[in-house]
Specification:
Elements lengths: L6 H4 L8 H9 L3 H12 L4 H8 L3 H21 L6
Amino acid sequence: MPYEDDIYFNDDKYSEFDKDKWSDFIRKLNKTDRDILYLVCVQGMDYKEIADSFGISYAAAKQRYWTAKNNLKRIILKEGMLDE
């Protein structure tokens, strides 16, 4: 369950991507970024649960999620799929 402030995931401009395209983008992320996005977006985990799973602080879990989203955005932009 992405957080309400997830402008990257709630924006209509991403709705044009099909499942295969999303899979291509996600495969280009490092394992930590993939894991974090999976736990939040698919499993619906919150920052506290992620922190507990990874043995890190709440702030670090929040930062890792932010970093993963930004890395995904960079990949999408690099592929020329979106304008900044």
